[in-house]
Design brief:
Rossmann fold; 5-stranded parallel β-sheet; 4-stranded parallel β-sheet; about 40% helix
Length: about 290
């Protein structure tokens, strides 16, 4: 018996998007192997079972393996007999769309020796009929853009709604040290009252409660935060639908010590309360002594 192993088998029609799916899985931190001969599947499972770090992994197996692909049913039987948990994702697509994709990429179908491209696709469907019946998930990519495919697959694998698929990176910074070049959105909060001019707060940061309370106490701060947060909530699903995995929001004040830090922390707290994945970091706060 091989315990505590769970992985994904990606298969389906040539040209249906298996390469794209494997890239998506890599972004989800899966260890991915493309075009693995089915006969080696048991060895791969045993290697991962012996590894203390049970990282998710995925393999793509299809007719590119040609004579080796016939071993797939035997490999699946071994998995079942060994108690290994696995999920089969099958990618399907309309014939006309597949023909167009092969024409656009100028690639040969792996079964091109069967005659015309339509003959090759028909023969491939016949070879894949059994594994299609066993598939846990069947995705028809005929009308899916890459971004839409990513959203669907992320939702299936993570069980999260679309507005929770995006990871938000919130970064406070000081304009005096330069604008971060990796930020997708930048907000300037220098219009807020500045604790720097209060002697007892000058050498503190927005991570200190006194400074945070001072910055957040003003009506203009709360009005800004409410409108800013509503905007972010509107943008998150829109970015997710476009397949964006990470969104970096830069929040800047003069020195990156007080206002931007307090606002970044508050934004992160609100996102966390609503179940939206985020990370808050402060670029220009010096290391604690």
């Amino acid at each position: 018996m091989v315990d505590n192993i769970k992985f994904i088998i990606v298969t389906g029609l040539s040209g249906a998007g298996k390469t794209q799916v494997m890239k998506i899985l890599e972004d989800l931190d899966y260890f991915c192997i493309d075009n693995l001969p089915p006969s080696l599947l048991s060895k791969l499972v045993e290697i991962h079972a012996a590894n203390k770090e049970k990282r998710n992994f995925a393999v793509a197996m299809d007719v590119r393996g040609k004579e080796h692909f016939s071993d797939l049913n035997k490999a699946l039987q071994w998995l079942d007999d060994s108690g290994v948990k696995y999920q089969i994702i099958f990618l399907d697509c309309e014939d006309e769309v597949l023909v167009r994709r092969f024409s656009e990429t100028r690639r040969r179908h792996p079964l091109s020796d069967q005659g015309s491209i339509y003959d090759s696709i028909a023969y491939e469907r016949k070879l894949l009929a059994d594994v299609r019946q066993l598939a846990d998930v069947i995705l028809d990519t005929s009308s899916l853009k890459p971004a839409e495919l990513k959203v669907q697959l992320n939702t299936i694998l993570t069980g999260k709604p679309i507005d929770q698929l995006l990871n938000i990176d919130i970064m406070s910074f000081g304009f005096k040290y330069g604008v971060p070049n990796d930020a997708d959105i930048i907000f300037d909060v220098r219009f807020l009252p500045n604790p720097f001019y209060i002697e007892e707060m000058r050498h503190l940061t927005g991570n200190h409660q006194d400074v945070a309370d001072y910055v957040l106490q003003w009506e203009q701060t709360q009005t800004f935060l409410d409108k800013f947060y509503d905007l972010i909530l509107d943008l998150v699903p829109a970015y997710s639908r476009e397949g964006k995995a990470n969104l970096t929001i830069g929040i800047g004040c003069t020195g990156g010590q007080h206002r931007s830090v307090a606002i970044s922390n508050e934004l992160g707290s609100r996102l966390s309360r609503d179940g939206i994945s985020n990370r808050v970091r402060h670029r220009d706060i010096p290391l604690e002594k």
